[in-house]
Amino acid sequence: FFQTRSQTRQTASLPRERTALSDESAGKIALAITLDSRHQCEVITAVLWDNDGVLVDSEAVFFEVTRQAFATACATLSSEHWARSYLGIGQHSREVGLGLGIPEGDIDSLLDRRNATFRERLRHPVPTLPGVPETVRALQGRTRQAIVTGASREHVNLTHHSTGLLPFFECIITSEDYECAKPHPDAYLAA
């Protein structure tokens, strides 16, 4: 969609006549595109990266830890159900677990244990996805870059403790920085 300058957050210092957010990879990468009035062409002025499943290969780890946690409550979580519910329509793990029949009285403590297990797993290096380090480095100095994620700041810091990528991002927008979860544009506008 296109926004005029008056509709765009004024805290961003990108010069623009109009900006488009291009939704690539099912909402994983957004591009801020500026119309360059001197050359009458569009220029990518910012790349807004999602973190999990785009920069780092942490989604498989999170799914497996969640699947194992749900199994302790006799709930079977398939990768198809996870992709449809959690990744597709954005249900939280709590909603997914309740939908699979995990009792209301058990779900919160189960998710606390799952989260502790996941944090411990993230202390081991999480690999970047193929081509990511090279792409992020190649964009350095050519365009602004930010991470926009539904994850917590702690999660981002844990997943990147060994990647060396964080210094390449001008800002990191996490779940603590906005009200409405993606795909609502709050997170992107905060960047």
If you had to describe this structure to a student in words, what would you say it looks like?
It is built from 7 helices and 6 strands, in the order E-E-E-E-H-H-H-H-H-E-H-E-H. The protein has 191 residues and is an alpha/beta fold. Helix 1 (59-71) packs antiparallel against helix 4 (104-122) and helix 3 (93-99) packs across helix 4. It starts with a strand and ends with a helix. The relative contact order is 0.14.
The ordered string of helix (H) and strand (E) elements is: EEEEHHHHHEHEH
Q: What's the arrangement of strands in the largest beta sheet?
A: 1-2-3-4-5-6
Proportion of strand residues: 15-25%
- Proportion in helices: 25-40%
| Overall outline | elongated
Treating each run of at least 4 consecutive H or I residues as one helix, how many helices? Answer: 7
- What kind of oligomer do you see? single chain
What is the CA-based Rg, rounded?
18 Å
Summarize the structure.
By secondary structure, the protein is α/β, with parallel strands linked by helices. The protein is built from 7 helices and 6 strands; from the N terminus they run ββββαααααβαβα. The longest helix has 19 residues, at 104-122.
Descriptors:
single chain; 191 residues; alpha/beta; six-stranded mixed beta sheet; elongated
